[in-house]
């Protein structure tokens, strides 16, 4: 994940941005051989239009720090919940993509839905060995994501386990 986030920064700078958004993260995921990359290839999704839309003039000076947008930060935080659904201890790119697809305020999630990738389609492609069904149902409900219920459940799970370890 750290490599993808670093690459997101490079993509943002290359596209002339002074911040890192979910679009940059999505484009960075495509440059690595990971589960989302292969799912997008299998579904034959084209991201060239997104790259052209984001292209701006090059920055004259590269800032020392690039800030992460609130919508990407929200997806990164919520990806922990989606890792719990699949009994994973480590957050992976596919968990971030699930968080983006579930959040209607995520720009990259909206773009993915517009080109034909839904939360259900992406989740079904993951083929988990084990999955927490109730958490999956809650996490896949856009309304519950928007009102903050998913974050509340995630925070409660983290608190419970931190107090009982």
List how many beta strands DSSP finds. Answer: 2
First CA to last CA: what distance?
26 Å
Number of helices: 11
Q: Spell out the helices and strands N to C.
A: HEHHHEHHHHHHH
CATH architecture: Orthogonal Bundle
Number of domains: 1
Per the principal axes of the C-alpha atoms, what is the gross shape? Answer: globular
Radius of gyration, in Å, reads: 16 Å
- Helical residues, percent: 55-70%
- CATH homologous superfamily? Clp, N-terminal domain
For the biggest sheet, the summary is: 2 strands, parallel
Could you characterize the architecture of this molecule?
- The chain is an all-alpha fold and 165 residues long.
- The protein has a single domain, classed as Double Clp-N motif (Orthogonal Bundle).
- Helix content is 64%, strand content 2%.
- The chain has eleven helices and two strands.
- Strands 1-2 form a two-stranded parallel ribbon.
- Helix 5 crosses helix 6, helix 5 runs antiparallel to helix 9 and helix 6 packs antiparallel against helix 8.
- The longest helix has 16 residues.
- It starts with a helix and ends with a helix.
């Amino acid at each position: 994940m750290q490599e993808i986030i670093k690459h997101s920064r490079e993509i943002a700078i290359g596209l002339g941005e002074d911040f890192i958004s979910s679009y940059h993260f999505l484009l960075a995921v495509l440059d690595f051989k990971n589960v989302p990359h292969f799912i997008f290839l299998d579904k034959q999704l084209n991201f060239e239009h997104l790259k052209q839309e984001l292209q701006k003039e090059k920055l004259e000076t590269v800032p020392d720090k690039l800030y992460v947008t609130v919508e990407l930060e929200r997806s990164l935080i919520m990806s922990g919940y989606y890792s719990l659904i699949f009994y994973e201890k480590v957050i992976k790119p596919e968990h971030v993509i699930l968080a983006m697809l579930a959040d209607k305020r995520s720009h990259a999630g909206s773009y993915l839905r517009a080109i034909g990738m839904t939360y259900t389609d992406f989740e079904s492609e993951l083929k988990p060995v084990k999955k927490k069904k109730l958490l999956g149902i809650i996490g896949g409900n856009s309304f519950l994501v928007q009102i903050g219920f998913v974050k509340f459940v995630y925070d409660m799970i983290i608190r419970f386990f931190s107090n009982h370890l």
